[in-house]
Amino acid sequence: MIKLTILGNNSAIPAHGRHPSAQIVEIREQLFLVDCGEGTQLQIQQYNIKRRRINYIFISHLHGDHYFGLIGLITSMGLLGRAQPLYLFGPPLLEEIINLHLSAAFIELPYEIIFRAIEHDAAGILIDAPHYQVSCFPVMHRIPCHGFLFTAKSSGRKLIPEKCREFQIPSSFYQKLKEGQDYIRRDGFLVHNDWVTEPGPTDRKYAYCADTLYTESFLPYINGADAIYHESTYLQADTQKAFERYHSTAGQAAQIALKANAQKLFLGHFSSKYVELDPFREEASLLFPNTEVTVEGITYEI
């Protein structure tokens, strides 16, 4: 299962009780911070996020509403005694920006920042661990920008304990059964895997589609996602403005969710010109019914 906690879902500036982009993705108790707009560490405190469990941070692009909270967060982590390394993924220039801030303030962090640059138009796997995988894909914005795909890997096939005992399979072989292997007993008898297991849960996939105008270019990367978060800065009446500013409307986000064969659509990155957000859900739901307008502080299960 993947858990998604929204820390900020507004665009550009804080307004109407909403904050710039930031969210926490949780897989197997590992926390990933995706974007870090102004005020993110205050939101982390507000919603009782365990910052010591944040070991990976992903910055989609270098517009301020997606990273202006980063230097404050990483320095606070140092002040609070962080010792373990922090992995940071983002545009190449981000490393220089961070180092300049730290140098100007004569700050020496008590932990290591391991920076991994995401080059313009790069696509591929960033992290591949036993229980999760994170990859990136380019979207289309005014400056280089990337989305991220989080995969919670399946734990394998589900054991049928009574059948395992019936066929005299030792517990030391259970993990291989979960991986789909057959078992050969000492007497030479072959125990077929599907006799003692049944299909387990499938991989869970969540796609964060960062700031982008409407484009189908990244559909191959997010196809079949269980849920996607797609920016919906504007409503349909402002389609031309969305195009000029390299953003999307709620209806366009719904089109992407539909074409991607997604199961659920989360909307966010709302323009400050809108106080009420119900019209976003209404517009997107006409095409993609399983749409939700994100609410800060809510944790969604995927």
Describe the structure in your own words:
This protein has helices spanning 40-46, 70-79, 93-104, 161-166, 174-178, 193-196, 219-222, 239-244, 250-259, 278-285; strands at 2-8, 22-27, 30-36, 54-58, 86-90, 113-117, 124-128, 132-138, 146-152, 158-159, 183-184, 190-191, 197-198, 204-209, 227-231, 264-268, 291-293, 299-301. It is α/β, with parallel strands linked by helices. It has a seven-stranded mixed beta sheet with strand order 6-5-4-3-2-1-18. The chain has a seven-stranded mixed beta sheet with strand order 7-8-9-14-15-16-17, with helices on one face. Strands 10-13 form a two-stranded antiparallel sheet. A hairpin with a 7-residue loop joins β8 (132-138) and β9. α9 (250-259) packs across α10 (278-285). The protein is globular. The mean pLDDT is 96.
General form: globular
Give the integer mean of the pLDDT values: 96
Structural class: alpha/beta
Strand content: 25-35%
| Low-confidence runs of at least 5 consecutive residues | none
Short synopsis of the structure:
The protein is an alpha/beta fold and 302 residues long.
Characteristics:
alpha/beta, 10 helices, 302 residues, 7-stranded mixed beta sheet, 18 strands
Write the layout of secondary structure elements.
Elements: E1 2-8, E2 22-27, E3 30-36, H1 40-46, E4 54-58, H2 70-79, E5 86-90, H3 93-104, E6 113-117, E7 124-128, E8 132-138, E9 146-152, E10 158-159, H4 161-166, H5 174-178, E11 183-184, E12 190-191, H6 193-196, E13 197-198, E14 204-209, H7 219-222, E15 227-231, H8 239-244, H9 250-259, E16 264-268, H10 278-285, E17 291-293, E18 299-301
Parallel strand pairs: 3-4, 4-5, 5-6, 14-15, 15-16, 16-17
Antiparallel strand pairs: 1-2, 1-18, 2-3, 7-8, 8-9, 9-14, 10-13, 11-12
Helix pairs in contact: 9-10
